[in-house]
Write a sequence for this structure.
């Protein structure tokens, strides 16, 4: 029988094919055999023929055809798309559609945009390949807004619009529409349409369906994706977003210039892009800039002209070109005075010079500049003069004084006379009041009483008055007195006793026109203070006085009296005395003279008191003293007859012994000597020598000045000082410490703490500490290295404490000894240190590898260890392999047996040996061997089947991988419920080819049945009992028949149902069900569709109270029958509403009622049967129920907040509530404000306060005050804000009665509710101004003043006050006129009249009146030049022919011609004008005056005018001349020198203020701190005034001087003007080199810091701000710390600094560098290992533990103490352990430490309770007791009582009723230790007090002994502790 095989291909996937096979002979066909085959499903191919159709401007209707190769049933289609033009998106938007729909509508797309679209089909095998990209463009629409529209003003009439293309062009942009409007009126100014080609230079954005046009596309972060009608959608976003690469056209700004705009006008600019239609508008508002004003200010006028001020006013220019301010300029006789700016239309000039002509210019100004100006001229009237100048004392005697002064600097007219007044300061009596005039005329000051003036007025009332009285209200005068020049005979005869009282009658003649004047005041008292004042007069009046204070000279005093003294201390004496009998002036001080009698050394001191404490005297010394008094004149005679003799007492020495010196020193002895103290202050009784080393202090006494100190430590530094004693002590005066170090010897101890660590297997690192007793400087260390079993020894000398030793043998033991040597020799060797070098990989392979075959496939490999293992052989690795496999086995023995090798196979093997460092890649020799044959080692593989029909299958399998021979046949086993069946199939083909599949066909199987099947392979030795994997075989299925049965549903809740059914009675296979659920409403789609194998299912999340249709169709894999689909109608249950009613409207019907309406809930979840309403208010809560959807709420309170809750109700209950908070409408208040009271009131205001209305019924908008003025019966009102409860009412009339009440207003009114009324009368105030004031000149010396009373007196008028010339006079309230007489002629007087009440003076009214005026003089004559220099001109002229008035001065007018003009015709040619005044006049003779301060080499012209009190007359004719040339007057201006880099500077300057000729500049540059740089540069005035200098040195100071000169450069230094030197420093640069020659020095007895010494960088390039050290510990290289070095010594050559904050015993790497202002320089490194010393002594004493009640935790045998947390610091080195020492009180000074057993049973001594524990960590802030880990129990170990414990350290129990002390001992790694202080004594309890009795006593009795209760607490605490070492409970255990 022969088996035939054939292959058929080219089938479609997932199709069912029937294959017929017939045999053919030469004459006929045989009956065909058939088989049914179903092909597998694979991924489908791409859909074909994609097409699109535009839907509006934002949609695409996409369609396609099914794939050419669906490869199965299409389940759905995947559509993904993205935007590619104008923006390239990186993420696709994905849409899923149904398989029966070959189109999809993509919506929400961007108009005018090209999209890339791809479609893929999906079947059960997955998503297939996407179609080729399909490009489609949406329809165009209006573009979006342009981007970043900005407006840039080019000038006041043009702007530049700038924008970018729209982000969403929505098509091809063809043009831009630009509109310009007035921002305020909206009037269109311009409307322009500009083509895009005229604006853009790049390629224009345009999208189409051609991919070649997308070169300009960009990536945008747009988040707008299209939408589909299909509900399933997924957005696929790549993990990495593509970078944005903007094309140039999108980054190119678009600009357009708009011109012909108006300045300072606000415009609205609108820009929109245009495609097929205009796009969205973007706008910007900009105001055009201002421009220069086009015309000057209008209506320029002057007003309010006074002697020192006037004001001007104007209107704005007619044309507005900006926001105007105004530039105001003032010019006077000397030229430009003021330049100011204002925004007002008025300006006041003040502080002007009287009697002067001023020119005022004003122009409007905007930000663009100043426009045209307008001007006017103002002349100020004359005024009183200023104060006289330079008033000083010329001579001062005891009884006379000579004063000197100069004319006033501001005469303000012609000086006519002077007044000199003298007052005594103490009594204020006037001694002299003299008027000085030029013509021997003395004016007397006359005082009149009021009766005299009344009579005089009657006498003059009938006289005729001269002239007219013109009043100038703007002229101000201030004469403090009234003068008259009439003699006594000229006075009118007056009836009565009127007398004239003259203050003085002396006459003094002076030259009134002199520049400097003097006067002698006589008849003064000596040593008296006087005040002298001098004032000047003009014709207008008297000026302010200049005041001088002086005191007359003193006389010498007499001697002091009654001198005595008292000893205060050994160096101080209190000396006291009485003042002189005749001081003759003020005693300014006393002088005490003293002399030391022994040395004759004299000294003196001064004091202002009558006593003096003399300090600093020599102790135990005799003195002689005397006292003298002094005034400013001199000193009194010395009081020799009253000399005092003083002796100071004995005291301690004030100085130490001197010259302490070393005579001799050895290793153990020091010889000293010294001299006595320089200031012993008594007899020396003995000397005391103090000497100390680092640990101890020693004291020895000596009676002489030498001593020998013995028993000293070798090579130890001692600090030695000496002090001397008197009988009173040593005075703490020790000699300067003498540092002496004893000589060296060999070390007395070996190096300590020798440790090592392996670097490699042949190298170690040896570390050790210096000897604890080095006895000198360790010069070298000697290391002896020897193998443990060897004889050869290596000797290594080193100076380091860490050394690496190399060339050692691997894994070998050595012994190491170390010794230290000083200059005196080698010391002791250390104890031998045993070291073992590290392991390594073997250096040789295992030996003698052999193989022995035991049986079949069992072999044994054997070998010997390697000759050079280099460590412990941890295992051997055996490698065995053949052609099929390779394996390795690790073993620890020297043999290995393999039992599981393959039969009949050739193997090779080798092995390696491994230590913990590996095998060293050393292999043994390779051996080869072969195994014998056998049965197969594995079964057939990969058994699969394929259904041919419903009763037959075809099997496939692959041969065994290890057949171990030839396969003869295969056996197939299969079984079902009927039994097991067996068929054999002969093998064919090459069985050695394990990749060749075998096959067989099984027939006559049961339909749709389950079989289990397996296969074996057999050789000649059998099947090896190897079976294949058992597989399950199912015959094929059929389509089921019949409906599902018992289809029912049950409501679980209102949103879920449970549906159940039974399968069909004839399922014909594995049945499953198609389930679909849809709403009952017509036209609704399915909401749920799925497959399930279950017969029940729960639908949840359904709509409540909704009808659904459920459809179930049974199916198998062969298909489903739509004929047997069954439907079920389902309705979900009702529920409470899911949402609240929707509040629709709310309205106030009145102030007490509202109407509310609502709509039903959006999700009612059933039939709404009613609505529940709950109203919450301030007084009550109400509930309502209604079936309507509105309600009217009545009887509410006005303006009240209510909350209403509305809920809908079904039969299931109410749903959620909707909440509405509302206020009822406001009403008028039902009550007025309360408690209106007055807090204060004045003459015109009142302060009120009140309480608010208790029933406001709304928001109080305002408070209204009803104000009734009782005296006038006027009623008026005032309002204030409703938020206030206090008010200040102003505007009341003084001295008037008022009634006031207040009411509150809401928006509806006040309800006519007024508060209580308050009544008050305002206080008096100052009266109003007097009325109708008139001043009329009656004659040349009198003026009549008249007035009417004020319109409002504001009180009772008490009197009137009239002030004239600074003097005020009071008049009766009944007077309304007065005549002032005895006035000066040709003078203007000002009168100030005001009324007064008790509240004060009212406002002044002013009137002015003048006597007959003087006239101006004629012009000066014959003006000529007499001398012309470069800066001055001398003029000569004759006086005017006529001077009709008092001559005041000559005014010399000087004008400078502008350098741009050659004539004087126009004002622009006059650069400036100045005036000079001459106050001397010579009649009919030449007058000479020199004008100084002129500019060199310039044209000037001059004119002279004379003046009287009226003003200046005509000027002389102009004469002109040119000044001579000269050297520069000033240096160059604005010299600025700036450093621009570390190596360059920039120099700039401007020309001098005054140019006196062709000017050149010499720039001189020198280095300041050295002579390394000096350079000069020359520049002319025509060249630029900027100079750049480079190639300079960093951070170097340079001096820059610029000299301006004319003429020869060689004379520049002599004749030129040099600027002030400007010192500039070039910038800093980082240091160029590191610190050099760095060394370090350890500080004796200091392990936390050390000194470093180094040379500063040679090129610091700046100020070294700090030296820093970067320090890291070798144990923790990552923890780097930066230290600012603390410099302790610094010179130019070296720096010594301290590095602190280190820890002992650690090795540090240190990098030192310098830092200046530019940064850090390079580093220099060093390495240091810090020494170790004993731990620092703790600052705290050990303490016991107290419980929460403050009682000690102590028993009869134990004491609980605190652990030493934060006691010891490891700064001095690592702390190895901490031990507890305990001792009975009294034995703590015993120096022998013993064991607990000996101290307890024998003799009390200190003993250790433990071997030691680590130093507890110190956590900051946790020093207090917080847990049992932080306490220690002394006496907790009861096992110490066990025999044999007497020699061990044990924490045994304590003795009862004993006092104990305890302390801690910290020991470091070197064995050095530090003890803490002993604790305070703690007493144990009595043994008889047990825990139970204590507990009973404490609980049962009122009085409990404190000790018993403490025992209770302690026992309880101990019972809670652990059981190790110091944490054990007491011996009695727990209660």
């Amino acid at each position: 029988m022969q088996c035939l095989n054939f292959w058929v291909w080219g089938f479609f996937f997932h199709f069912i094919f029937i294959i017929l096979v017939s045999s053919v002979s030469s004459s006929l066909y045989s009956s065909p055999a058939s088989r049914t085959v179903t092909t597998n499903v694979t991924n489908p191919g791409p859909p074909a023929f994609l097409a699109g159709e535009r839907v509006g401007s934002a949609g695409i209707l996409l369609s396609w055809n099914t794939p050419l190769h669906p490869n199965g049933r299409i389940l759905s289609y995947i559509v993904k798309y993205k935007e590619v033009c104008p923006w390239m998106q990186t993420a696709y938007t994905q849409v899923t559609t149904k398989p029966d729909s070959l189109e999809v509508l993509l919506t929400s797309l961007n108009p005018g945009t090209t999209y890339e679209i791809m479609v893929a089909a999906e079947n059960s095998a997955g998503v297939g390949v996407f179609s080729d990209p399909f490009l489609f463009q949406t329809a165009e629409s209006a573009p979006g807004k342009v981007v970043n529209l900005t407006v840039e003003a080019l000038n006041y009439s043009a702007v530049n619009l700038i924008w970018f293309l729209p982000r969403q062009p929505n098509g091809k942009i063809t043009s831009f529409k630009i509109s310009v409007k007035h921002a305020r009126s909206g009037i269109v100014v311009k409307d322009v349409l500009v083509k895009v080609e005229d604006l853009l230079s790049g390629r224009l954005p345009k999208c189409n369906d051609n991919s070649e046009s997308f070169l300009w596309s960009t990536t945008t972060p747009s988040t707008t994706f299209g939408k589909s009608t299909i509900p399933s959608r997924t957005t696929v976003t790549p993990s990495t977003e593509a970078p944005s690469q903007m094309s140039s056209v999108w980054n190119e700004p678009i600009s357009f210039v708009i011109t012909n705009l108006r300045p300072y006008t606000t415009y609205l600019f609108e820009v929109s892009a245009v495609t097929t239609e205009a796009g969205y508008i973007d706008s910007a508002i900009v105001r055009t800039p201002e421009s220069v004003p086009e015309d000057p200010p209008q209506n320029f006028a002057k007003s309010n002209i006074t002697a020192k001020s006037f004001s001007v006013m104007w209107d704005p220019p007619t044309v507005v070109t900006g926001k105007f301010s105004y530039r105001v300029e003032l010019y006077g006789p000397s030229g430009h005075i003021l330049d100011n700016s204002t925004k007002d239309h008025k300006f006041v000039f003040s502080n002007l010079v009287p009697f002067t002509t001023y020119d005022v210019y004003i122009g409007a100004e905007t930000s663009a500049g100043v426009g045209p100006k307008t001007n006017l001229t103002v002349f100020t009237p004359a005024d009183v003069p200023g104060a006289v100048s330079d008033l000083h004392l010329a001579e001062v005697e005891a009884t006379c004084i000579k004063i000197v002064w100069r004319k006033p600097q501001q005469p303000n007219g012609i000086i006519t006379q002077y007044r000199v007044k003298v007052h005594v300061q103490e009594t204020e009596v006037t001694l002299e009041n003299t008027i000085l005039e030029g013509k021997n005329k003395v004016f007397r000051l006359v005082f009149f009483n009021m009766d005299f003036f009344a009579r005089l007025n009657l006498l003059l009332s009938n006289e005729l008055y001269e002239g007219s009285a013109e009043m100038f209200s703007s002229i101000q005068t201030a004469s403090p007195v009234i003068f008259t020049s009439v003699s006594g005979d000229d006075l009118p005869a007056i009836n009565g006793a009127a007398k004239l009282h003259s203050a003085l009658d002396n006459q003094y003649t002076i030259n009134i026109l002199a520049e400097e004047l003097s006067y002698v005041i006589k008849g003064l008292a000596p040593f008296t203070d006087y005040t002298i004042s001098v004032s000047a007069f003009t014709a207008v009046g008297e000026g302010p006085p200049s005041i001088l204070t002086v005191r007359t000279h003193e006389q010498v005093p007499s001697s002091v009296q009654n001198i005595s003294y008292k000893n205060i201390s050994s160096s101080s004496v209190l000396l006291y005395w009485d003042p002189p009998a005749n001081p003759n002036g003020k005693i300014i001080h006393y002088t005490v003279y003293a002399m030391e009698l022994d040395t004759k050394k004299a000294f003196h001191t001064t004091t202002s008191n009558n006593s003096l404490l003399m300090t600093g005297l020599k102790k135990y010394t005799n003195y002689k003293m005397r006292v003298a008094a002094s005034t400013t004149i001199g000193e009194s005679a010395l009081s020799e007859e009253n000399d005092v003799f003083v002796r100071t007492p004995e005291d301690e020495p004030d100085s130490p012994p001197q010259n302490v010196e070393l005579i001799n020193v050895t290793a153990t002895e020091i010889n000293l000597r010294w001299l006595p103290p320089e200031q012993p202050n008594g007899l020396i009784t003995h000397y005391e020598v103090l000497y100390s080393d680092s640990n101890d202090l020693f004291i020895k006494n000596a009676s002489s000045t030498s001593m020998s100190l013995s028993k000293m430590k070798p090579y130890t530094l001692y600090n030695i000082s000496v002090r001397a004693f008197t009988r009173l002590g040593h005075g703490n005066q020790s000699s300067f410490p003498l540092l002496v170090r004893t000589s060296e010897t060999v070390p007395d101890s070996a190096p300590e703490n020798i440790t090592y660590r392996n670097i490699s297997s042949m190298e170690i690192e040896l570390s050790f500490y210096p000897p604890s007793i080095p006895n000198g400087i360790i010069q070298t260390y000697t290391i002896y290295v020897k193998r443990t079993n060897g004889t050869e020894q290596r000797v290594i000398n080193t100076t380091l404490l860490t050394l690496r030793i190399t060339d050692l043998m691997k894994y070998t033991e050595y012994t190491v000894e170390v010794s230290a040597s000083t200059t005196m020799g080698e010391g002791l060797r250390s104890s031998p240190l045993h070291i073992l070098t590290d392991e390594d990989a073997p250096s040789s392979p295992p030996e003698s590898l052999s193989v022995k075959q035991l049986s079949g496939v069992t072999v044994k490999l054997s070998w010997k260890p390697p000759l050079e293992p280099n460590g412990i052989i941890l295992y051997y690795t055996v490698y065995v392999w053949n052609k099929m496999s390779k394996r390795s086995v690790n073993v620890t023995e020297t043999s290995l047996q393999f039992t599981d090798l393959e039969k009949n196979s050739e193997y090779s093997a080798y092995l390696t040996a491994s230590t913990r460092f590996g095998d060293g890649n050393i292999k043994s020799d390779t051996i080869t061997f072969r195994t014998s044959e056998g049965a197969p080692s594995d079964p057939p593989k990969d058994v699969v089947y394929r259904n041919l029909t419903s009763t037959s299958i075809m099997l496939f399998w692959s041969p065994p991988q290890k057949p171990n021979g030839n396969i003869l046949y295969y056996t197939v086993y299969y079984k079902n419920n009927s039994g097991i069946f067996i068929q054999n199939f002969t093998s064919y083909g090459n069985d050695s080819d394990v990749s060749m599949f075998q096959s067989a066909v099984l027939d006559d199987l049961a339909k749709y049945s389950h079989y289990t099947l397996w296969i074996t392979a057999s050789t000649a030795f059998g099947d090896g009992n190897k079976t294949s994997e058992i597989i399950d075989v199912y015959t094929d299925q059929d389509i089921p028949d019949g409906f599902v049965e018992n289809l029912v549903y049950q409501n679980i809740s209102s949103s879920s149902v449970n549906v159940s059914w039974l399968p069909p009675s004839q399922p014909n296979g594995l049945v499953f069900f198609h389930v679909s659920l849809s709403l009952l409403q017509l036209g609704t789609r399915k909401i749920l569709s799925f497959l399930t194998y279950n017969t029940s299912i729960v639908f949840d999340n359904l709509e409540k109270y909704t009808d659904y249709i459920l459809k179930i169709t049974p199916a198998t894999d062969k298909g489903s029958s739509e004929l047997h689909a069954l439907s079920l109608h389902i309705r979900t249950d009702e529920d409470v509403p899911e949402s609240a009613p929707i509040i629709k409207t709310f309205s106030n019907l009145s102030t007490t009622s509202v109407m509310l309406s609502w709509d039903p809930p959006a999700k009612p979840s059933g039939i709404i049967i009613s609505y529940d309403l709950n109203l919450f208010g301030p007084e009550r809560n109400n509930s309502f129920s209604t079936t309507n959807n509105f309600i009217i709420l009545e009887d509410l309170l006005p303006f009240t907040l209510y909350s209403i809750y509305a809920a809908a109700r079904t039969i299931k209950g109410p749903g959620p509530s909707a909440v509405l908070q509302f206020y009822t409408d406001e009403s008028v208040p039902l009550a007025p404000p309360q408690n209106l009271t007055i807090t204060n009131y004045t003459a015109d205001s009142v302060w009120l306060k009140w309480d608010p209305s208790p029933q406001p019924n709304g928001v109080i908008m305002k408070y209204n005050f009803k104000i009734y003025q009782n005296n006038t019966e006027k009623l008026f009102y005032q309002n204030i804000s409703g938020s206030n409860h206090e008010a200040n009412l102003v505007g009341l009339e003084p001295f008037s009665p008022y009634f006031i009440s207040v009411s509150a207003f809401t928006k509806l009114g006040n309800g006519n509710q007024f508060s209580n009324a308050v009544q008050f009368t305002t206080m008096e105030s100052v009266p109003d101004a007097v009325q109708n004031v008139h001043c009329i000149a009656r004659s040349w010396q009198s003026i009549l003043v008249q007035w009417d009373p004020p319109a409002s007196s504001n009180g009772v008028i008490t009197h009137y006050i009239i002030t004239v010339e600074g003097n005020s006079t009071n008049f009766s309230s009944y007077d309304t006129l007065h005549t002032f007489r005895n006035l000066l002629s040709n003078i203007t007087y000002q009168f100030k009249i005001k009324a007064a009440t008790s509240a004060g003076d009212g406002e002044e009214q002013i009137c002015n009146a003048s006597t007959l005026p003087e006239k101006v003089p004629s012009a000066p004559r014959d003006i000529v030049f007499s001398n012309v220099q470069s800066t001055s001109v001398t003029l000569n002229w004759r006086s005017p022919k006529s001077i009709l008035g008092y001559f005041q001065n000559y005014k010399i007018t000087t004008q400078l011609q502008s350098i741009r003009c050659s004539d004087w015709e126009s004002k622009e040619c006059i650069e400036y004008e100045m005036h000079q005044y001459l106050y001397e006049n010579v009649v009919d003779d030449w007058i000479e005056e020199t004008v100084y301060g002129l500019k060199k080499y310039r044209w000037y012209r001059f004119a002279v005018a004379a003046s009287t009190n009226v003003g200046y007359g005509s000027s002389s004719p102009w004469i002109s001349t040119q000044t001579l040339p000269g050297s520069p007057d000033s240096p160059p201006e604005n010299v600025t020198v700036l450093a621009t880099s570390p190596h360059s500077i920039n120099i700039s300057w401007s020309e001098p203020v005054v140019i006196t000729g062709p000017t050149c500049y010499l720039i001189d540059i020198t280095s300041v701190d050295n002579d390394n740089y000096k350079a000069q540069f020359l520049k002319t005035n025509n060249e630029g005034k900027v100079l750049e200098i480079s190639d300079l040195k960093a951070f170097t100071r340079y001096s820059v001087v610029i000299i301006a000169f004319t003429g020869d450069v060689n004379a520049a230094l002599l004749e030129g003007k040099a600027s002030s030197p400007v010192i500039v420093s070039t910038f800093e640069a980082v240091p160029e080199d590191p610190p050099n020659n760095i060394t370090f020095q350890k500080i004796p007895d200091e392990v936390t810091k050390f000194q470093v010494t180094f040379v500063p960088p040679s090129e610091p390039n700046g100020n070294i701000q700090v030296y820093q050290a970067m320090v890291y510990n070798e144990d923790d290289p990552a923890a780097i710390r930066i230290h600012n070095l603390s410099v302790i010594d610094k010179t130019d050559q070296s720096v010594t600094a301290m590095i602190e904050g280190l820890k002992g015993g650690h090795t540090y790497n240190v990098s030192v560098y310098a830092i200046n202002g530019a940064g850090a320089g390079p580093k220099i490194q060093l390495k240091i290992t810090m020494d170790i010393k004993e731990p620092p002594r703790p600052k705290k004493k050990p303490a016991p533990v107290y419980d929460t009640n403050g009682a000690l935790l102590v028993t009869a045998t134990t004491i609980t103490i605190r652990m030493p947390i934060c006691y010891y610091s490891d700064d001095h080195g690592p702390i190895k352990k901490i031990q507890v020492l305990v001792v009975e009180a009294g034995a703590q000074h015993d120096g022998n430490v013993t064991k607990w057993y000996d101290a307890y049973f024998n003799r009390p001594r200190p003993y250790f309770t433990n071997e030691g524990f680590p130093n507890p960590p110190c956590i900051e802030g946790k020093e207090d007791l917080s847990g049992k880990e932080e306490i220690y129990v002394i006496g907790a170990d009861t096992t110490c009582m066990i025999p044999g414990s007497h020699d061990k350290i044990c924490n045994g129990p304590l003795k009862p009723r004993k006092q104990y002390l305890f302390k801690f001992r910290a020991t470091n790694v070197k064995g050095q230790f530090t003890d803490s202080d002993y604790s305070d004594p703690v007493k144990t309890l009595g043994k008889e007090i047990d825990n139970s009795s204590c507990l009973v006593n404490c609980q049962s009795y009122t009085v409990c002994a404190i000790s018993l209760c403490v025992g209770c607490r302690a026992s309880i605490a101990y019972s809670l502790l652990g059981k190790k070492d110091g944490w054990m409970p007491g011996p009695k255990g727990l209660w």
